[in-house]
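Task: complex structure prediction.
Instruction: return structure tokens for all chains below.
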Amino acid sequence: MRMIIKNLIKMIKKEDENMPLTLLKAGECQVIKKVGGKEETKKFLESLGFVTGGKVTVISEINGNLIVNIKESRIAINKEMASKILVSF
Amino acid sequence: MKGARAMSIKIALAGNPNCGKTTLFNALTGSNQFVGNWPGVTVEKKEGKLKGHKDVTIVDLPGIYSLSPYTLEEVVARNYLLEEKPDAILNIVDGTNIERNLYLSTQLMELGIPVIMAVNMLDVLEKTGDELHIKQLSQKLGCEVIGISALKGLGIKEVAEKAVGLAKSKKIGSFKHEFDLRVENVLKAIEKKIEGEIPLKERRFFAIKLLERDEKIAAQMKKVPDLSEEIKKLEEDMEDDTESIITNERYSYISSIIGSCYKKKGQGKLTVSDKLDKVLTNRYLALPIFALIMFLVYYVSVTTVGTWATDWANEGVFGEGWSLFGLTVPGIPVLVEAGLSAIGCAAWLQGLILDGIVGGVGAVLGFVPQMLILFLFLAFLEACGYMARVAFIMDRLFRKFGLSGKSFIPMLIGSGCGVPGIMASRTIESDRDRKMTIMTTTFVPCGAKLPIIALIAGALFDGAWWVAPSAYFVGIMAIICSGIILKKTQMFAGDPAPFVMELPSYHMPTVENLLRSMWERGWSFIKKAGTIILVSSIVIWFMSYFGFVDGQFRMLEDMELGNSVLALLGSSISWLFIPLGWGDWQSAVAAITGLVAKENVVGTFGILYGFAEVAEDGSEIWGTLASSMSGLAGYSFLVFNLLCAPCFAAIGAIKREMNNTKWFWFAIGYQTVFAYLVSLCVYQWGMLLTQGTFTIGTLAALLITFLFIYLLVKPYKEGSYLERKKTMELK
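Output:
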């Protein structure tokens, strides 16, 4: 399922090859391309270290809610927030 | 000291959450600390005197990630730094997570206040083999940097001396970090525009904040220059909004200096915490593991060791007496009675002290040992880092009915006692989520409600096994339904705050830390027993031992409780409970005394039915109760007492945590009305189904049920409307 969605997104968005963080599997590591969402959300995520160009690693995943590693710290983030963070393929 | 002039120095401790700030604070101040509240908010600020320096005050600010005005903690910390202007900032930085921590540091250094940096967790760094060159870091940042280990007590003295020296010298560090040239040029232009109002040392901070369109900073200035031209040009130049430009500039500055100061060993390897998280937060194993841990905690603290401790406290210390290595130690009531008789105390005063004060307060204090055991376990789970994961695991479930995963911990603690449960809600940042948690936490049956359950189950249901689990089920359903209904009201409109939370590394907590946390929670409970419960015990005692007999107001004999003021009060309101099936004055009085402490309900029935003393489950009065109340009425009584306003101690906690009279009354009112309606439905539906009686009460129950179902399934209209309105206002 995950692969299908990934490929679909890849097909649609050939130009900028981004996908939401929620599609990463446990153990995968990617570079953040864009942090979206409301100003408040975005700023908070940025102060936690979610900035464009930063590397993010998924430690574990429960139904789209994630525990990730960013800049040496471990952050739990729910699906809604994680979908605001776009990473490269 | 030379010169009698008292020179008081204030040093603010600032840093990210979880970087060891509080540990350092305790190490710096020793035991001389006190806890004060920030005005108007529940975020706590601690203040203490530096050990060995009576004139130096250390202020522990809430943990923050940045100085932007988006969370309560950030606003509180920023306002303190800007308005109170401490003499120096001691910026504590987690050495194992230096990059993210320095993000805040770059902002602190712009404030125009001398900054000294303490890099914490040197011991952990040593263990992992990572290298950090403190001297180089200090040179690059342009401020003094000292390596410490707050936990092991290394470097604390040095950092304290240096901080005091810095505060006295008032020397602001030479400013090293610079942004992109384009940004710097705009900043210079802005600085020029605000020259007249803002002093030189604070000018850069204000310029950056104005560039970031920070409205709260603009509101503090008398004359705000128009910067729309500059902002627009910069945003077009760099293809981003100014806030993100600044954020990115800060991080790229940090990465540019960090490379030469910090060398990580074993890059990309999983740490022990990561490995533990792979198991403990595994998508399949997380819930079973959690259930097992909770079962163990409760098994030990409620049934085995807990029961032993509670029995010792209730029947020993606050009862007949207990034995210590074969020596019989008399209980407090026995001692007090002997003492009072010896000094020839008046009978009524003796009654007040023994039955009213010692009995009332003792009943509550009896729960302390059991609670301390539970608190010790919870403190361990919290300190080792597991609780943060629990909040994460439960978030998905709780979100469905309008609460956040962080609401789970207060409810867990609330199953022991509502008071610390309500207090634990303080860790929830979102105002909306916190208020909702406070309102629903006491629906969980607490330890003191267990005797009521035992009484009803024993007297009216022949000790049926399902009564106790059903009480928990009623509590949990009350939380879920309240969450869903409240979410649809205007004041709770919208979704719970999105869940983002830093998870600390797993580590073995220190014994000292565990005991401190256990004691803090336990002590605030004991303090309540000494104040609010003491007063209400006295009032209830007077009301039950004084009354009108043959038109004369006098003190009553033991068996004349029917004439007491309390009975009068009970009869005057008992009609309210007729639709609930228990309209006799005894039950009404029992429900009232339940407000003092829930376990009072059983004792009150005992007194009212003419038994001087009853066992905890009231087995003596089972027969009498069964003859005066039907099973259905009994269950309705149980439901009402489980859900209605909690005991005075918990009501006091709600008042303090809400910190707002209107919200406080709303919470209490909601709980009581909710309890009344649910009990009414239980009784009336039960009567209809078992006896086939249809009265006006049945009609009311039907209407309430329909209204209830309507509220549950009604779409979230107001929520989205309010959201839209808000966003429109912002535009």
